[in-house]
Design brief:
By secondary structure, this protein is mainly α. Helices cover 86% and strands 0% of the residues. The chain contains twelve helices and no strands.
Length: 271
């Protein structure tokens, strides 16, 4: 019998014992970032937040999305889930930010280096197809319970789309445009920053949209390890057999997901 799980367990235990200071530093850094997002979102009065998001939705996604944003966010506040929604949004924003900081450069690297692309493709397949619950196990062992392991698992789960679509966007830049830029004496960095990335931006923004959606779905699952937010409301509804509470938490998640999806799609189209 091949016991792959045994060797993975040994590897994770070795990492936990030998890299404890590193994981503590990461825990403090990510935890501080989540707290900053959370405090900033809760500091804004709910009515001002709703107005700002409605205006943003109006300009980026149209009148229909603005109306949905206005009444949807008011419904969340009316159900009494405003604090939990801001906690979820803070976790999504912090996780997405780290995923983009890591994923976009990695996507550029895979687009420009075929050898790295061959190595990254199966790694991304593994990250994207592995059941989301599996990521919670090492996250808890490395960081304990709370929002930080939830963010760690979310980053791993949500990063592949932005890597893939950044890679695709850079590769799809027409070769004649690239050759024209080179013929005018563009350096590799100028070619990347002034030609390839601007033309690939709509595709990259689609990757950002998918990363946000996957972050939101994973944040709900991360409630199982005390990440808090709307996922905790849904989890209470499941564990305590409170059907109404579970549906209310689910409706709040759906509203937040639709609002974020429409706004980011609008940003991609505008770009």
């Amino acid at each position: 019998m091949i016991q792959i799980g045994k060797y993975i367990e040994i590897a994770i235990q070795w990492l936990t014992e030998n890299f404890a200071p590193f994981f503590d530093a990461v825990n403090s850094g990510i935890g501080g970032g989540i707290d900053v997002f959370n405090q900033a979102l809760l500091w804004i009065p709910f009515y001002l937040f709703i107005i700002l998001f409605t205006v943003l939705a109006w300009f980026k996604a149209g009148k229909g999305t603005a109306i949905l944003t206005f009444f949807g966010l008011f419904l969340i506040y009316g159900m009494g889930f405003w604090t939990e929604t801001m906690q979820t949004l803070a976790l999504v924003l912090s996780s997405t930010s780290i995923a983009l900081i890591l994923g976009v450069p990695l996507g550029i690297l895979t687009a420009r280096n075929p050898k790295i692309s061959k190595v990254m493709r199966p790694v991304l397949d593994l990250m994207q197809t592995m059941p989301a619950f599996v990521y919670l196990i090492p996250a808890v062992l490395f960081f304990g319970l709370g929002p930080v392991p939830g963010a760690f698992a979310t980053i791993i789960f949500a990063m592949p789309p932005v890597v893939r679509l950044t890679d695709l966007g850079v590769r799809q830049v027409p070769k004649d445009i690239v050759e024209a830029a080179r013929s005018y004496g563009a350096s590799p960095s100028q070619l990347l920053l002034k030609v390839q990335l601007p033309l690939a931006l709509p595709t990259i923004m689609t990757g950002v949209n998918q990363t946000i959606m996957m972050s939101l779905s994973m944040v709900v699952i991360a409630a199982m390890i005390s990440a808090g937010g709307l996922g905790e409301i849904v989890l209470k509804g499941i564990t305590q057999m409170k059907i109404g509470l579970g549906f209310e938490g689910g409706i709040a998640v759906v509203i937040l997901a639709i609002v974020l999806d429409r706004i980011t799609q609008g940003l991609a189209k505008n770009k």
